Amino acid sequence: MRKILILTVLAFLFAGALPAWAGGGDEQQGAKQFRMFGAGFGHGLGMSQWGAFGLSKKGWGAEKIVKHFYSGTRVARGSGPGDLRIGLVQGKDVIRLIAEAGDVELRLGGPQGQLVATVPSGATWKVKAAGNDYRIVNGAGETVDTVGGTGNPLFVVYQSLGSRVRVPEAFHTYNRGKIEFDLYSCDGECVMRLVLSVDPQGYLYGLGEVPSSWPMPAMKAQAIAARSYAFAKAAVSQHRAVCDCALYASANDQVYAGWDKEGGVDGARWVAAVDQTNRKVVLDGNQTIQAFYMSSSGGFTENNENVWGGSPIGYLRGVCDPGDFTTSNPNATWVETFTTSQVTQELGLGIGAVEGFADEVRGVSGRIISVTVRGANGQQSISGNALRSALGLHDDRVWINSNRLVTGAIRDKYDRLGCSPGLPESAEAGVAGGRRQKFQDGVIYFSSGTGAHELHGAVLTHYQQRGGPGGNLGFPTSDVQTLQNGNRRAHFEHGVITCDGSNCSVG
Length: 507
Description:
This protein has ten helices and 33 strands. By secondary structure, the protein is an alpha+beta fold. It folds into four domains: 7-46 and 295-400, no CATH class; 73-83 and 200-291, no CATH class; 88-198, no CATH class; 409-506, no CATH class. The strands form eight sheets. The chain has a seven-stranded mixed sheet with strand order 8-7-12-15-16-5-17. Strands 11-10-9-6-13-14 form a six-stranded antiparallel sheet, with no helix packed on it. It has a four-stranded antiparallel sheet with strand order 1-22-23-24. Mean pLDDT is 93; it is low at 2-29.
């Protein structure tokens, strides 16, 4: 469910964007190349995994992290199904089984059904769709038996404690629950799917969404969000079309790695995070939420209606993500460069060579909702999601040929302010021996001697009128402060500005 997470849940969210912020766009007529200055990785909705990582490093606990990303929610113990049905594989005519650390049995009709064959430990056998039957083939290529039929599933059963089965077609090894072969789509030759039925804790033990080496609060937050998502999906249906499951074992829902996760490096830490959050879910009122999450927000998450359309959902509001900008996050910021011919070909809009982009409409996070693409033979408006998909961008929180990324000391200050200065309106630039960056609602100034400080309103206007950092006041040494009498004040290297409304004085 991370990165391009849980796209299958689009069925719950209907089309129709409601832009939260509109910008005139950065028009680049005749540009010979396009530089995409981006931040984040994923759809931008719900919890940021790297944000949770960074917040845990700042001392936040798991429940505080979760409630930050899911507005107005609470964490409590919830009830879920006894078992979850997980779709491991679909649409195969051959599936391999590799027995590990013990034999595994194949039983017809149920886990306690007729014993058909036993795969010896260390052997690789195959199950093939043979008409309406299962053909079981041993490691020597010999048919062991042909059994079953549609409506008569074949089950993989671990014969002893500790035995496992690796399924190359599913890319992972499994040691929990029961694995069911089903024949389906039998208008011609049948194909097979594998469905794992496993208790919720066992499912979460194998969830491969974040590294097991991460800080414990971040892993606990992930466990709570993942459990919430799974319970919400199962409540809708455990028998979805194609997979006959509640959840796909992939980024379509949540990546389930089975034994490879819990038995991997630091796997015991992840299991402990799951155990320590047993039954905890995120609730909106008394309802378990659809706890969407992604890899990296780029510093700010987005409103649901601006991601996949539909009506606004109270717990899916865009929020500042002050944990995302961590040196460990490879996608906190990024830059991609494309030639005109690459952009023209990949967008394929039929408007001739792309010459520029304009009239961007952005969401609360700065993600592009729509943008006009101007070509030699016309122009066309496309969605940010279409731009991202066509060009293979990590995210649609991107500025085109305009570096508005917030980084370094200015980013640290911006995050400490809870993103209150608003979206960036300029690149970081050098001024009078220091740096500054403009935002919708203020400016952050930085110098090595004074650090980073934010100015806005009448104080900022007066400061700029007096020459800014190059004037006689120098750099700010404080943010704008509100005094008890309602006046605004900021301190500088060589003075103080105090404002009563729009009337300001220097002391």
